[in-house]
Specification:
Radius of gyration of chain B: 21 Å
Radius of gyration of chain A: 23 Å
CATH class of the domain at 174-344 in chain B: Alpha Beta
Number of strands of chain B: 14
Order of helices and strands of chain B: HHHHHEHEEHEHEEHEHEHEEEEEE
CATH architecture of the domain at 174-344 in chain B: 3-Layer(aba) Sandwich
Number of domains of chain A: 2
Structural class of chain B: alpha/beta
Helix content of chain B: 25-40%
Structural class of chain A: alpha/beta
CATH architecture of the largest domain in chain A: 3-Layer(aba) Sandwich
Largest interface: A-B, 52 and 37 residues
Number of helices of chain B: 11
CATH superfamily of the largest domain in chain A: Aldehyde Dehydrogenase, Chain A, domain 1
Oligomer: heterodimer
Chain lengths: 455, 417
């Protein structure tokens, strides 16, 4: 399947973009939006998105087929990883979930269409309407495709024109999604642009920022600070900085070897999903001592599980530098394991860097080099666990939890008070619901501006 | 005192001191050496194979006769370059002998080898010798020297590093280091009195193996301490004394005598930025040379090698062919050099393999992988070192991949690198 040249990202790699091209694209997007998109209803957009999600889950979809056939070469993820990741994403993109999101973030499903009372407003004799940005620019990090796709979904839902700027070389899946939107509704597709350039190309970015009235960006704190400093004052900026996540398995969650195997399989799901590259992916699994299985045993189970996954859902090829980072990191633990085997053990895929599990008795949180490289650490209790997270305070996104029912309330309360932004069952870390509050903020709600009407 | 290792060290120094190719025109110590540009020198060298084994043997190197294939790569005919880490019975024998000694006398290394199931009885070829990752020098005391025997320790540099690598030495191991570094240095930088270093002297940085190297060169040439033009900064790094450098460069310009300027990449960036800010450009006398080494360590902006060399050419007026890039680290006792745009070469007593990070096996010609060095001059620590540097296998040498040439880091998750 050859994709037509609808977007800047469709141009051959040697075609250089100019600031003028970006400026003209922004003008065309806003013009097209005014002519078509602005007059659409939320219901129509919800229907468009949910139909599109259905299509992406259909084995016969040409876009899905292209994503699976060419994705491994374009993204580095294996076919199975892309398939599982995309299915998980599009399965959540239903009419019901979009409605739930509109109600949660905006107080009602028609608040983008007219001045209506939200769920809490009738008592105060008010109505309100959410007004979306005219043109949203998304600066995506590109390590995993879902955040870019989700940003695009929100832009479609709010009927904003959108310019998606992907990190260099990472446009493949956002571009396919954009083409599928174009195919479903060409006029809608004409309100969307996808481009791909190396971050820090100041002239291109300045042209983009001059045309947009809202900018969303995902990346390192330094990247976000640099973007924020260059934005005109009137532009709304939604920055999503670096976050880390981990798993916590309580002692009671491992009452038996059978149960432990099940928990390890869920943990492996989280490591394998998008090769652990997202900020919702775990760096460490903490295992509480005193349950039916020691942390070391859990690490061994996890290693066996990752070995099996490599056969069914391989990690795929890495750039040499990323593979070398894994080798260098393995070296640390090989050395430690040879000298203090009681404190450190390591399990590594043979003749490859496909997966690595490191057991350490030291409970200090460790940043992983990712790409299926995960730590397992023992802690006596949640209090000790939290004490060992000082290095990542204010940076924790998700905790994947395996906990016995009667402990769940107290454990989650402590995690929330400490500052964890999302707690989910182990195995679901990379699979947040559509209504997920991104980094603790309403993703849809933060995009809009309100007009209040007091009756 | 370990007689096995001492004996090995003595023989190695003898090999190094004669360069293994004493009979070759243009070899180390020959009077004509370095009086001509490198390319002209190569042309004078006889074809590989035209020097007989008996000629070399007549050098009287009992136990350490160097076959022609193990000469400096520079002297090899380009028609028949051996691949990186080419086999050579003599190197192999020495490497296996040293491995057996280090396995026995370096307990930390022994545990690492045992954990890998690679003991001297099970290793038949030098390429099978377990390479210690450089991180082992941070984690362990990776030395054949007992704590009492250690008199000097070299630390890895880097401002963000909490735990540096430590390479322990004593007089005997330093003698090997000096012999090895001088041979490589003389070979690639050549003679000349006008030598200046953009670093502080040894008293200000006693744990820097680079400054030890510079100081060894200084002592060999009987130069004063004032050839060190750097000053220590408060945070353990150092800065360049710009005015002192300018004085040195100006006096070279007046005298017309070629000058040699050596320093770290970040020091050159600092210097050239300073010169540019003050609208000063130099055109150093013909024959002047520059040696840069050691990367940036977050102490300046990071440039590609080509970018740095062009900046040096433009700011100092030294042609690219006269800019030498040195690769060394505190964990090694030998250095690799690349002159101009040529690939890097270690001297014959150190060999490299470029290995795939996935399989650990050597990559094909032109392939990229992790640089592994087998440095026989690391007599009293570990000869086989797995670095964290990436390189491309090029003929009988390698091309380093700098940080600047690597892919753009990206992502929303923090990631250890």
């Amino acid at each position: 399947m050859n994709l037509p040249n609808y977007f800047l990202a469709d141009l051959p790699p040697e075609a250089a973009l100019s600031p003028m091209m970006v400026t003209e694209a922004c003008q065309a997007l806003k013009r097209n939006r005014a002519r078509y998109l602005a007059g659409r209803t939320t219901d129509q957009q919800v229907k468009l998105l949910s139909n599109l999600a259905d299509e992406w889950q259909d084995a016969g979809s040409p876009f899905r087929q292209l994503a699976l056939a060419e994705g491994p070469g374009q993204t580095g993820f294996s076919r199975a990883t892309i398939e599982r990741g995309l299915d998980a994403f599009f399965r959540r993109l239903t009419r019901e979930n979009l409605h739930a999101l509109l109600i949660q973030d905006l107080g009602g499903p028609r608040r983008l269409d007219e001045l209506v009372a939200g769920v809490a407003e009738p008592a105060s004799q008010r109505a309100a309407m959410a007004v979306a940005p005219e043109l949203v620019a998304h600066i995506t990090a590109g390590n995993v495709p879902n955040p870019a796709l989700m940003s695009m979904v929100l832009g479609v839902l709010t009927r904003s024109a959108q310019f998606v700027k992907c990190a260099g070389g990472t446009a493949f899946l956002p571009r396919l999604f954009a083409h599928s939107l174009y195919e479903a509704d060409a006029k809608m597709g004409a309100c969307l642009e996808v481009a791909d350039w190396r971050g820090g190309s100041l002239e291109l970015e300045d042209a983009l920022f001059a045309g947009a009235d809202c900018v969303t960006a995902t990346g390192s704190d330094e990247t976000l600070a640099a973007i924020r400093a260059r934005l005109p004052h009137k532009i709304r900026f939604l920055g999503y900085g670096h976050r880390v996540s981990f798993g916590y398995v309580t002692g009671e969650a491992l009452p038996s070897a059978f149960r432990a195997g099940h928990v390890a399989a869920r943990a492996a799901d989280d490591v394998v999903a998008w090769n652990q590259l997202g900020c919702l992916s775990p760096h460490v699994f903490y295992v509480q001592e005193g349950g039916g299985m020691r942390a070391e045993g859990f690490a061994e189970l996890l290693a066996a599980e990752l070995e099996q996954r490599e056969a069914s859902e391989p990690r795929g090829e890495l750039p040499v530098a990323a593979a070398a980072a894994i080798v260098a990191r393995r070296g640390i633990y090989e050395v430690r394991a040879a000298h203090a085997p009681g404190n450190t053990r390591h399990w590594c895929s043979r003749d490859s860097t496909a997966w690595t599990v490191i057991y350490e008795s030291d409970p200090q949180f460790q940043i992983s080099c990712l790409n299926r490289f995960v730590y397992v650490k023992a802690v006596p209790d949640l209090k000790t666990l939290l004490e060992n997270l000082e290095s990542i305070h204010d940076r924790v996104s998700t905790v994947g939890l395996a906990v016995a029912g009667d402990q769940a309330a107290e454990t989650t309360r402590q995690l929330a008070r400490w500052g964890v932004l999302r707690i989910c069952p182990l195995g679901q870390m990379q699979n947040p619901p559509l209504t997920w509050r991104h980094d603790g903020r309403p993703a849809l709600g933060d995009l809009v501006t309100w007009t209040d009407y007091e009756l | 005192m370990n007689t096995g290792l001492s004996n090995f060290a003595a023989r190695l120094r003898q090999w190094i001191s004669t360069g293994g190719d004493v009979r070759l025109p243009g070899a180390l110590g020959a009077t004509e050496f370095n009086h001509e540009p490198p390319h002209a020198r190569v042309a004078q060298v006889p074809e590989r194979g035209s020097v007989s084994r008996s000629t070399l043997k007549s050098g009287g190197l009992s136990g350490f006769v160097l076959p022609p294939a193990a000469k400096f790569p520079r002297f090899l005919s380009s028609a028949t370059p051996p691949h990186v880490g080419c086999d050579d019975a003599d190197f192999n024998a020495r490497a296996l002998e040293l491995f057996a000694l280090q396995f026995r006398f370096n307990p930390a290394y022994q545990r690492l080898c045992t954990a890998r199931g690679r003991t001297p009885e099970r290793v038949e070829h030098w390429t099978q010798i377990p390479a210690a990752p450089t991180v082992a020098f941070k984690e362990l005391e990776l030395s054949c020297l007992t704590p009492e025997e250690r008199t000097v320790v070299f630390h890895s540099s880097g401002t963000t590093e909490q735990k540096p690598s430590r390479h322990f030495h004593r007089a005997e191991s330093l003698a090997v280091y000096e012999a090895s570094l001088l041979a490589g240095f003389e070979r690639h930088l050549g003679p000349g009195d006008g030598v200046f270093f953009l670093t502080p002297g040894r008293s200000a940085a006693p744990h820097s193996s680079l400054i030890y190297m510079f100081d060894t060169v200084r002592r060999r040439r009987a130069l004063p301490e004032s050839v060190f033009l750097g000053t220590p900064a408060g945070d353990g790094s150092w800065t360049v004394d710009f005015l002192a450098v300018i004085r040195a460069l100006q006096s070279a310009r007046i005298s017309g005598q070629p000058l040699m300027l050596l320093g770290t990449a970040f020091s050159f960036v600092h210097l050239l930025d300073y010169l540019a800010e003050n609208h000063v450009r130099f055109h150093l006398p013909a024959g002047s040379r520059v040696m840069e080494t050691g990367g940036y360590k977050n102490r300046s902006r990071t440039l590609s090698k080509a970018g740095l060399h062009e900046m040096i050419r433009d700011g100092l007026g030294v042609p690219l062919a006269q800019i030498v890039c040195e690769y060394g680290m505190c964990e090694l006792s030998s250095q690799a050099y690349a002159v101009g745009d040529e690939e890097n070469h270690f001297p014959p007593w150190a060999r490299v393999q470029i290995v795939s990070p996935e399989t650990g096996r050597e990559v094909a010609e032109g392939g990229t992988g992790i640089l592994r060095v087998f440095d026989l001059a690391n007599v009293f620590s570990v000869a086989a070192i797995q670095t964290e540097d990436l390189a491309v296998r090029r003929g009988d040498g390698f091309e380093l991949i700098g940080r600047a040439e690597r892919a753009e880091p990206r992502g929303c998750s923090l990631m250890a690198v």
